[in-house]
Amino acid sequence: MNYYFMPRIEGLKCSVTLSNFPCVEGERPWSLEQVLHVAWSDHSLWHVRALDTVSPGKSVVCTCDELPSELPNDISPFFFFHPKKLPSTLDRLIISDLMLTSPNWRANIQLSSPTTSASYQGEYPGSMIGVEKGTLLSLGPLVQLKAELTSKLILVNLGAAPGNEVGHVRFAQMSKQKILLEATVRRNHCNIIDLSTLNCDESDDPVCVFSNDLTGIPIFLTHDLRFTKMSLEHTHPPAEMLVFGDRGKFQKQMKGWWLSKINKYADNN
Question: Which site in 77, 82, 161, 241 is 20 to 30 Å from 44, CA atoms measured?
Answer without folding.
Answer: 82
